[in-house]
Automatic annotation (TrEMBL), chain B:
Keyword Ligase: yes
Subcellular locations according to the entry: Cytoplasm
Gene: purQ
Subunit structure of this chain's protein: Part of the FGAM synthase complex composed of 1 PurL, 1 PurQ and 2 PurS subunits.
SUPFAM superfamilies named among the record's database cross-references: Class I glutamine amidotransferase-like
Protein name per the record: Phosphoribosylformylglycinamidine synthase subunit PurQ
Amino acid sequence: MTYNVKVYISWKAGVLDPQGAAVTDSLHKIGYSGVESVSISRMVEVKMEADRDSVERQVTEMCEKLLANPVIEDYSYEIEEVVSS
Amino acid sequence: MKFAVIMFPGSNCDVDMYHAVEEAVGEEVEYVWHNETSLEGFDAVLLPGGFSYGDYLRPGAIAHFSPIMEAVKKAADEGKPVLGVCNGFQVLLESRMLPGAMRRNKNLHFICKTLPLTVENNTTVFTNSYEQGETIQIPVAHGDGNYYCDEKTLAELRENNQIVFTYGLNENGSTADIAGITNKEGNVLGMMPHPERAVEELLGSADGKKLFTSIVKQWREKNAVTS
């Protein structure tokens, strides 16, 4: 099976994101005073071959080992099967 | 005594590190490419600064899967001194050989200047030639040096005396002003400042020299006992 996987990597609650803080300041400066906070996340798109049984386990492993740093980051993912036409 | 300087693609302080060993302590030193798998015959391992794998994903994240890292872990388990400076520190964090993680500097600037550090623990293999509480001048050069660990980890670091250097001037936003920490056993040190760039007065400071002499001093004492 071929899968398109989207992995979302964000900051753990309580970990200050310096880029998010800078963008918050900037948004305030250009008039968006209602902005409370900004957090800059990353999205990683992975296209992969895998069995239906193992795809989720593999994605979780990839996140834990490399794509995210669990010390400071949380991750979530969406797995979508590519249907050949 | 024989030192290894690990070279990753994108390391750029490897030559400085090599030079520092020659200049500061005059011991044997060799480069080891990241694809090697053994560190047999080496007594200490140095992970230099730079931008291994272009800092892609996160600094140190990709380098920690280099074949040589298994040998670095083995050397650490055997109790050999392992020093990671700057990107080398980031590699040690990503490898979980040291606790915590690095974030972008709080001010988002690349900070490149000489900063005062305080020696918080002079009982390690890396700091036994410094005075406890001594202030030393060591250059920093990093964009991602904002050390983070949670409260529990910080308490453990303090309890085990693992915080070795703190910033006298905390410009990058590091938790508890941390500039360098060891593992629990004390034989793996990660630090953002560059002692290898401070081994000659001509370069502005020679305060980094004692870090290298400390390693050699302890090695000589240990080997005098066992031989």
